[in-house]
From TrEMBL:
<dbReference type="InterPro" id="IPR007315">
    <property type="entry name" value="PIG-V/Gpi18"/>
</dbReference>
<keyword id="KW-0337">GPI-anchor biosynthesis</keyword>
<keyword id="KW-0812">Transmembrane</keyword>
<protein>
    <recommendedName>
        <fullName>GPI mannosyltransferase 2</fullName>
        <ecNumber>2.4.1.-</ecNumber>
    </recommendedName>
</protein>
<comment type="similarity">
    <text>Belongs to the PIGV family.</text>
</comment>
<feature type="transmembrane region" description="Helical">
    <location>
        <begin position="20"/>
        <end position="37"/>
    </location>
</feature>
<keyword id="KW-0808">Transferase</keyword>
<dbReference type="GO" id="GO:0000009">
    <property type="term" value="F:alpha-1,6-mannosyltransferase activity"/>
</dbReference>
<keyword id="KW-0472">Membrane</keyword>
<keyword id="KW-0256">Endoplasmic reticulum</keyword>
<dbReference type="GO" id="GO:0004376">
    <property type="term" value="F:GPI mannosyltransferase activity"/>
</dbReference>
<feature type="transmembrane region" description="Helical">
    <location>
        <begin position="178"/>
        <end position="203"/>
    </location>
</feature>
<feature type="transmembrane region" description="Helical">
    <location>
        <begin position="410"/>
        <end position="431"/>
    </location>
</feature>
<comment type="function">
    <text>Mannosyltransferase involved in glycosylphosphatidylinositol-anchor biosynthesis.</text>
</comment>
<feature type="transmembrane region" description="Helical">
    <location>
        <begin position="471"/>
        <end position="495"/>
    </location>
</feature>
<dbReference type="GO" id="GO:0005789">
    <property type="term" value="C:endoplasmic reticulum membrane"/>
</dbReference>
<feature type="transmembrane region" description="Helical">
    <location>
        <begin position="310"/>
        <end position="328"/>
    </location>
</feature>
Amino acid sequence: MNQSPMEANNHKQLVLKYAVVSRLVVIFLAILWRCLLSPYDTSASINPSCLTSELNSHAPPVLLPRVAAAIENGIVWDSVYFVRIAQCGYEYEQSYAFFPLLPISISLLSRSVIGHRAVLGLSGCVLNNIAFVLAALYLYRLSVIVVKDSELAMRASLLFCFNPASVFYSSVYTESLYALFSIGGLYYFTSGARNIATLWFALSGFSRSNGILTAGYICFQMMHSVYSSAVLKKHAIFVFWELIVGAIRSICIIFPFIGFQAYGYYNICVGHSPSPWCKKRIPLFYDYIQGHYWGVGFLRYFQIKQIPNFVLASPVLSLALCSIIHYVKLEPKVFLSLGFRRVSSPMNDNKGGQDSARLLVMKDDASYKLNEGGDCALKQRKHVATVGRRQNFTALETGKTDDNNLSTAAIIQVPLVLHLGFMTATAFLVMHVQVATRFLSASPPLYWFSSYVMMSASSSSKRNIAQRGFGCGYCIWVYCWAYIFLGTLLFSNFYPFT
């Protein structure tokens, strides 16, 4: 069935409504817990002068000290770094672990009569809450294209609105901006607007270091296009063109990360007593700062005392693992071959002596087509048909649906699932594992799988499957709400939480 414009508009309005409501709920809970409980660390309001005297001289007077103090008390944990960078720039080596898009953005909004530091924090909260609402809308639009089920897309977007890392999306953290630009970039990528997608992916890399991983989507598309030109069409000039375009797009995405490394090298290593990382053959400060100041490294977090943090991260890690296994089991040949899977083409079966299989390849015109005039194509996004959720998920297991459409859907999901798998392994093996809750919170496959599990209860005709689906769906919602309450309680009062 096709999604009517009225249905799409209703779904978008519903997602917008719940995105706004969820932000109001999170902000209300954070203020409530802050008023009811005493913070563990009362140093949030401490604001020493900037090392550069010129910045201190330009600081505006605090005209509303009580309001400013209340706002500054909410600047906790990593928010302290982002606000400090926006106020004073990159003063210390460890501050270079925090990428500049958020500090630059809130600095541009920091003109107020309240007080400079207070309005920086307020600007960051306003900016991130707006970015979150936009990210939820882009997730819906992306989901409609990928899962081809408007109802599942809507439910996945609503689940994102109440995701377990919600408190970070309403604080001065980079989660909201990264989610907006990474999910928005994926929407434009799957829609065929590759140049716009490149810009959005680059902005995601300007907000968080893991944004450079989005270059993998461009490389995945380039790999299929090169294969199509070289093996199927045998056009050498097209191969060269695809390689050049893909390389340029990838460089554009990686450039913010490399540029920031160069900026840090110039400020720390040139004309100063060099830090140890300055003398390396490839002087990238990010890995050194993460390892030296925060103890981040391969298996370095595998300690007895960190077991509570592994328990804290276990729900999202388990959900991510189940999501990956689920998608791989649906079309194992597609995933194991990185999308190079042959599907039957009935039209070609009638051509004697010809191979009846054709390879689905990714094209820049927003369509996945069979080579040389094949009969399988996805039209432009405004004409994309929404096949039922069971066609994309349950029916894949039974093989009762059109093979071409199913393979197309699976190919689109391959780079998304690979991205989720890499990030999950990194969170478990390298990072502070409790950060996984917010580190993985912008991964669309998590919400698609969770929504499918919750919807399977109402769509299944078998009682035991329905009960199992209802139980899993109930656990997912309990997990989300429990972490929202826990996160707003602990985070707002300066207690450790992810």
